Here is the input.
Amino acid sequence: MKNEGSHISSYTSHAVVLIALLALTAISVAATEWHFGAFTVGVALLIASIKVATVIINFMHVKHESLFIKAMVSGVFVLFAAVIVITFIDYYLR
Amino acid sequence: MNASENGSHVSFLEHKGKYKGILSWLLTTDHKKIALLYLYSIMIFFFVGVILGLLMRIELFKPGETIMDAQTYNGMFTIHGIIMIFIIVIPALPAIFGNFFLPIMIGAKDVAFPKLNLFSWYLFIIGAIFGVLSQFIGEGSPDTGWTFYVPYSAESSTNVIYALVAAFILGFSSILTGLNFIVTMHRMRAPGMGWFRMPLFPWSLYATGWIQVLATPIVGITLLMVIAERVLKIGFFDPALGGDPVLFQHLFWIYSHPAVYIMILPGMGIVTEIFPTFSQKPVFGYTAILFSSLAIAFVGYFVWGHHMFTAGISYGSRWFFSFLTFIVAVPSAIKVFNWISTMYGGSIDLKPPLLYAIFFIFLFMIGGFTGLTLGSVATDVQAHDTAFVVAHFHYIIFGGMGFAFFAGLHYWFPKIFGKMYNNTLAYAGSIVIFIGFNLLYFPQFIIGLQGMPRRYFDYLPQFQTGHQLSTIGGFILFIGLIIMVYNLVYHAKKGAPAPSNPWKGVTLEWQIPSPPSHENFEEIPQIKNHPYFFGESTGNK
Here is the structure.
């Protein structure tokens, strides 16, 4: 199967991802100082999702996988997003 | 002549590995032995759950306090639910039959991660022990029901934390098993076995595996949030702390409704293997059954709100979830149509596994139709939290998953143990179980519609006849279970030797000796045909 085997990432790329994660953590803390009203949870989830995607793509090597695997991982994100959106729509409609 | 018949075959039970005695079981990484570890442990916990159920039925034989007080009854139905749901019906089919037969049916020597597989069993045992301990130690058995609804579960002075930790650990076991199976099917199918040549039981495990991996973490986090609320007083769900109890119900049912499909999809996969074998013809509508499994898994994610119609969710949410609940009935109906069509025109041999599979269809249909009653908002308001709901989910979970489990046990018993059971006892057991089951649960539909609430240890006199019939049914069911277990346990040791293929099955597990060898296959098979290829005369390629 294509894309099998090990992939050795450079220290530079690891460092870049680490800095990105630290920056996003700082942003998520800073975001608590702002009042987004109904979008408070949405903003927190958006930042958290970017962090998760960064880890999955780089540290879990999804960027080296086949299109099929990438599509499946993306599908999982879409599924979770749908579940969360449906839950919060209920809150807005109550 | 196969290896077993010429005497050179060494089964996995006789295989001399690195360890001897009990350690050869406790440290095994053989998927078949791990499956048996699950089988034995689940059967023990099953009888604990059954005994608790019988004690509740005795209490309900007449109004008022009979053998226990209200608080003890609350603990009984909570632990009965936790044991049956989290320890038995969620893990049983994937962990027992999936572990044993998935690698064999796809032509592999083991699962992708054998050590992780054993670790999953240890997690399962630790979680199960926590669950049972919560009944006996500390501040008294948890009394929240298996659903742990807040704010009560955040405030109850009983052992709720033990039960929450148990469910959390059991969830991890389930996630790891699902992950293992998904990777196994992606990476270890035999040469020539494309996705559309994979048998339908593995397909059902594939759909189940995705639910296990994607839905279980949500309930795990939710249960941790309840623990945090109890211990640290963080207000997630308790209105007194600024939380929202409806959020708990959303998060709980986002997992726990798909969990119903974790329970039932492998059961559907099992009977899908049984119907072609005992009809001696290919399964009708292979592709339709396959995609209906995936459709159930997918649509099943979006119907959780039908548990919350009376919990204060919005009007728009109610019709949205009601509509999708009716949609998810369609792929289930497709399967029933295909199972019956598989039998149509076949050379039917009504052996015990097929009888159990037919009982499964009958009971699952009753459970399914009454589910539509509960999926409709107007009728759900009438039946919510009544004995009708208790009857409905027992028809789905016990009538569906339970009877599929018994069907699978009788179907694969000769392959697992290399022995044949007594057919007469198997027929007797199945019929007694079927009669007892219906007498136990059907009256609960009627008294439920008349207004009998669930989870009450006392009731008004007009419900007494229904409760007494139900209790008698419970004891008949128990007798049937004893007959079945006696037959299987006795003949696992003393039964006549089983041939490789006693039922004339065509999937890969029937092409190897009974019981299988340590590595399943002497050579990895090359797959050249459809999994249900009964020969040219059937018109199947």
User: Anything to note?
Assistant: Residues 11-93 of chain A form one domain. The mean pLDDT of chain A is 88. The two ends of chain A are 50 Å apart (CA to CA).
